[in-house]
Amino acid sequence: MSGDAQFDRTDLRLLAEIQQHGRATNAELAARVNLSPSACLRRVQRLESEGVIAGYGARLEPRRIGLGLQAFVRVQLEKHDQHAIGVFADSVVDWDEVVACHALTGDMDYLLHIYVRDLEHFSSFLLDKLLNAAGVADVNSSFVLRTVKDFRALPLSQLE
């Protein structure tokens, strides 16, 4: 699906509800967006088949499962050819500590979002994995002191 998809207000309300209440039943969603259950189901199925709804999942509280340290690590590669980029990307995919990796413009090439147990775990990740990855020239780490906003729903109001 291309980025120029057109949605009516009902689609946008339905997407907002699904982002907020992913476990809602079809009947609950239908009531919230003023549709019949069958019409609601057809819309949800269409949005799923078009790839607008990419999946469903639970949001876990990191500290409650023992992941008490969160960091953002900026990575610069030595080379920027396809091979070097591919080798780095393949490594990142295999590292469980990395929950997101973004290629950037500017002076650093990648931004890694990392969750680990503690500083010792971070040190082990950094020394044993990241700094040993082929092609890594420089890293710069920042630790999260407090999260001010962490709501992963996409802003739909700008699409109306």
UniProtKB/TrEMBL annotation:
The keyword DNA-binding applies. This is Lrp/AsnC family leucine-responsive transcriptional regulator. Keywords: DNA-binding, Transcription, Transcription regulation. Residues 7-68 form the HTH asnC-type domain. The keyword DNA-binding applies. GO terms for cellular component: cytosol. SUPFAM superfamilies: Dimeric alpha+beta barrel (SSF54909), Winged helix' DNA-binding domain (SSF46785). GO terms for molecular function: sequence-specific DNA binding. CDD domains: HTH_ARSR. InterPro entries: ArsR-like_HTH, AsnC-type_HTH_dom, Dimeric_a/b-barrel, Tscrpt_reg_AsnC-like, Tscrpt_reg_AsnC/Lrp_C, Tscrpt_reg_HTH_AsnC-type_CS, WH-like_DNA-bd_sf, WH_DNA-bd_sf. It comes from the Bacteria. SMART domains: HTH_ASNC (SM00344). Pfam families: AsnC_trans_reg (PF01037), HTH_24 (PF13412). One of its GO terms (biological process) is regulation of DNA-templated transcription. Gene3D superfamilies: 3.30.70.920, Winged helix-like DNA-binding domain superfamily/Winged helix DNA-binding domain (1.10.10.10).
